[in-house]
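Tip: read the tokens left to right.
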């Protein structure tokens, strides 16, 4: 039988066992003509779940014959022998299981594909269970007292209860490998069963451009060494500009660009004050007011920049996960972990703002999963505005968080009536105000030290991590160490690397 066919049938049988389809799993396993000790253990586990003890013992006999040092096989067969009332055979299996542990307190079968740790106290427990069925109560109790001296998880409570059971002259229930825990094929071997594309994706083999590896939205075309000129929309001028200050993306379609970076401007027509640019091989939006013409170089000086076209992308990557503390101290561990991260995107296809504006009122543009516009009186308080927005979005007002970007800052600051916002007059400019809305669970009993802006997307590496997207505002709750912070965003609390965020000063 081909080894790949054995792996395929083995994997399909394990998937059926996970679905608790024991008969279907046996059908797959019976198609294997050349079993190994691990697949035979899976067969025995399926028979045990179906209550077919004689067939389970037969399969375990074959598994042990394949590997006579398989301690977990003797351990499992001892329990099945007890269930079949074959006590002498069960006691013999307990002795062989203890012998094959080679004085180790525990054997971890994870590397062999079985998520189970077998402890020496468990073997002693099953030996005591055999003596309890033979009415040898003193012998059973002495074995259990010896088991109390062994190491292992869950030993104390289970063995103490067994001592009390034997003292009452009651029979002990044998221990088994948990139902559904079976030997599984290696993931690497299963992945190799899938069809593979040996040709791979197309890449630039030769080009006039040094270090050309561009795979952007625009195909390559005849070009001059060092740059290429992208196409622009008809009737529009394309040119280079420079960023005055660094900018962190706040919504969908926007780009994060450092100060002094050169951008190729596609179009600067009015899109809520945003221009379409190309930077680092990506097309997106940045604020127009942050762009300035690029300074010209003297002809006699060595040219150190490209004449036109898109600069080659810099070799910058988001920082790796810092080495150090993998989990925060117990007092700093988050009270909840990230479940479904919600980032308030900026929708460029926004709802049209009414041209008519009543005297003494202000037009409030609210960025949510979509964009809405409200015409409210200028003296509207924060609480009233929160109620109006919540009613418009169909959300509870207590779970609505409104934020506003102060002039000269890149951070979206939460609007809080207790901190000085009495009405829209504090944030309105020229009869208009722009608000960002984010639904989240309220943050209770925690103090916000300061805020930071996410520079990169961060995917949690563990259950204690905080996930966020580029441009999110993060409330900093504590500093775990020099490299890790505890933060809050979108109703979730967790830790994250300090290098993934920027603090606005």
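Filled-in amino acids:
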């Amino acid at each position: 039988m081909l080894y790949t066919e054995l792996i395929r049938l083995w994997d399909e049988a394990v998937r059926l066992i996970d679905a608790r389809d024991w008969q279907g799993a046996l059908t797959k396993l019976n198609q294997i003509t050349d079993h190994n000790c691990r697949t035979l253990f899976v067969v025995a586990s399926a028979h045990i779940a179906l209550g077919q003890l004689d067939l389970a013992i037969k399969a375990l006999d074959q598994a042990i014959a394949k590997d006579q040092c398989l301690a977990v096989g003797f351990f499992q067969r001892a329990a099945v022998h007890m269930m079949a009332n074959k006590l002498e055979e069960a006691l013999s299996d307990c002795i062989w299981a203890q012998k094959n542990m080679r004085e180790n307190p525990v054997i971890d079968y994870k590397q062999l594909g079985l998520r189970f740790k077998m402890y020496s106290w468990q073997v002693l427990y099953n030996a005591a269970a055999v003596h309890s069925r033979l009415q040898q109560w003193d012998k059973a109790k002495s074995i259990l007292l010896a088991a109390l001296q062994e190491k292992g998880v869950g030993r104390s409570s289970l063995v103490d209860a067994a001592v009390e059971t034997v003292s009452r002259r009651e029979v002990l229930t044998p221990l088994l490998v948990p139902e559904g825990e079976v030997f599984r094929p290696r993931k690497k071997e299963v992945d190799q069963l899938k069809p593979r594309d040996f040709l791979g994706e197309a890449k630039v083999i030769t080009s006039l451009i040094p270090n050309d590896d561009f795979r952007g939205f625009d195909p390559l075309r005849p070009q001059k060494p060092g740059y290429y000129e992208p196409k622009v929309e008809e009737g529009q001028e394309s040119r280079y500009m420079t960023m005055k200050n660094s900018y962190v993306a706040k919504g969908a379609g926007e780009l994060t660009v450092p100060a002094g970076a050169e951008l190729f401007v596609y179009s600067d027509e009015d899109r809520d004050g945003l221009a379409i640019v190309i930077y680092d091989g990506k097309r997106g939006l940045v604020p127009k007011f942050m762009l300035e013409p690029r300074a010209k170089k003297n002809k006699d000086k060595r040219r150190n920049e490209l004449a036109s076209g898109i600069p080659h992308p810099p070799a910058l990557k988001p920082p790796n996960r810092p080495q150090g503390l993998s989990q925060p101290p117990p007092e700093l561990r988050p009270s909840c972990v990230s479940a479904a991260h919600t980032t308030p995107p900026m929708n460029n296809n926004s709802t049209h703002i009414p041209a008519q504006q009543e005297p003494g009122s202000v037009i409030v543009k609210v960025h949510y999963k979509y964009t809405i516009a409200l015409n409210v009186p200028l003296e509207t308080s924060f609480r009233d505005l929160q109620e109006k927005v919540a009613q418009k979005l169909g959300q509870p007002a207590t779970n609505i968080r409104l934020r506003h970007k102060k002039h000269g800052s890149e951070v979206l600051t939460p609007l809080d009536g207790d901190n000085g916002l009495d009405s829209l007059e504090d944030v309105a400019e020229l009869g208009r105000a722009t608000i960002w809305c984010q639904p989240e669970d309220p943050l209770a009993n925690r103090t916000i030290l300061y805020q930071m802006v996410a520079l990169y997307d961060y995917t949690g590496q563990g259950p204690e991590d905080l996930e966020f997207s580029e441009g999110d505002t993060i409330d900093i709750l504590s500093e775990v160490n020099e490299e890790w912070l505890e933060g809050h965003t979108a109703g979730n609390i967790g830790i994250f690397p300090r290098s993934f965020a920027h603090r606005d000063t």
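The first strand starts at residue 106 and ends at 108. The first helix runs from residue 3 to 18.
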